[in-house]
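Weekly puzzle thread! Below is a chain. First person to post its structure in token form gets bragging rights.
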Amino acid sequence: MIINEDKLSIVKAINDLYVLNRWKYLVLNKNGKYDTIQFFKNNPELNKNNTSPLIDWKIYHHINGLHTIGVFAGKKDGIEISKFITFDVDVKDKELAKWVVYKIVHVLQDIGIDDEFIHISSSGNKGYHVDLFFDIPIEVSLLKQFYEYVLKQENLLKEEINFGEVEFRPTLTQGVKIPLGLNFRNENKNTSNKCYFADYPNGLRHIIDPLYITKIKKIDTILFRLILDRIFDIETEETSIKNIVDYKYVKTNYTPLEIYKVNIDKDSTIKAIEELLTNGLIRNNTRHDSLLKIAKYYRYLGLSENDNQDFLIQWMQQQNKDFYTTKWEDVLLDIQEIIKYVYKNNCSLIGGVAKVEITYNEMKEILKAKSKNEKLTLYSMLIHSKRYGTKNGIFYMSYSLMTKATKLTRKTLIKIVTQLNEDKFINIIQRNKPIINNGKFMGSETNKYKITLNISNENNDKIFIVDKDDNCIDSFNQCLLDWYNKKEIKQLLGKRHYTEVISYSNSINT
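Winning reply:
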């Protein structure tokens, strides 16, 4: 067998991401039978013939399709630990399986886990694995709590669904097969039994590139523990917020929301799209991205799914073939997939404004909100509406974006948004809810809002500029410090909130 450089990289990645316990593992043979291999390093006489630890050669055989490997959790100082968590979606109906995956990913996104840390793979049949990987192994007991929390958010516990189940893996006694092997138990010749990774934005289409696994990023375990803090200690949010602030300063670099970085890019503005529509393709390797931008633009303008698709086809028919080499039938297929993706995920392309102005009177109204978290949430929504709102002031904002902007949990934000609506600071145009048709997940409706602050025209000459890279929490504090003295801030805010603003002030002045 020739072991090339690519296989070495893949084996190294599998070891790094999945393998913690080399003394106990699963082997699925070509006859479809699982064997649990236990190697007793301290008692060799207990080992069966030819028993060995999970060495690299066995992983080579795994990626070469000779057998399939599964792994278990490990143990350190008597505590069960794991490098990763798997939500094992065991659902026989393919569309329902996808629907469950989307629901799980939706919860992970909404509690603040970035897409780059969420990885999905096919089980080699109709099921899927949804994985998170950690830079430091974490207690299985905590992961099990997290797993149960995620399922409860979407009513996916075993007793709540009758079409399958989502199992927790791995533990010391329950292993899970790793990707890039074959599922020899799949006898259906019409489906692939290869356990490929899956592309979430593209309908869980197989990622054929075997080196995808070498690019997987692990989530910072400290940050993940802070997320667990927020989930399980909602009533003691003061402590959690303090921990997150401490963590932020340890990391020193604030990363703006991905949507801000993408939509503020000059090539993604409405002006650039309109130029693209007029001038057409003018360079190679831009066909797919151009079609995606145009599809988003016309969805933003209100075109129906069918009309948008017809326009893309007509536009492509007019393009210079010197700038693309794709076969026409593949172009049509790509357009169908783009339209499906844009409308299924409610994608909207709005020219994001790099700098936003917050007026004194707007801030005055925001400070009328009851709690610190309500004020912060309303402030973040106002900024988002000014960057991405339509001409009539309506804007989309998912709970995942609110979580990243405010560092609050989805559960807390749902309560806050409801309260802001009742207090007439905002108007909820449409709430996020899944669309189910004959038991199939057909996408989800997006949160739509409109800011309804009672703004007067008096004393509106004070302007605070929010730059695209500003941290929402810090810019809120800085806005207060720019316009009010300490005595006024103390009168405007609660004791805890006042203390946090002053602490922020001290931290930037030392």
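Puzzle host: Confirmed. Bonus trivia for everyone else. The mean pLDDT is 80.
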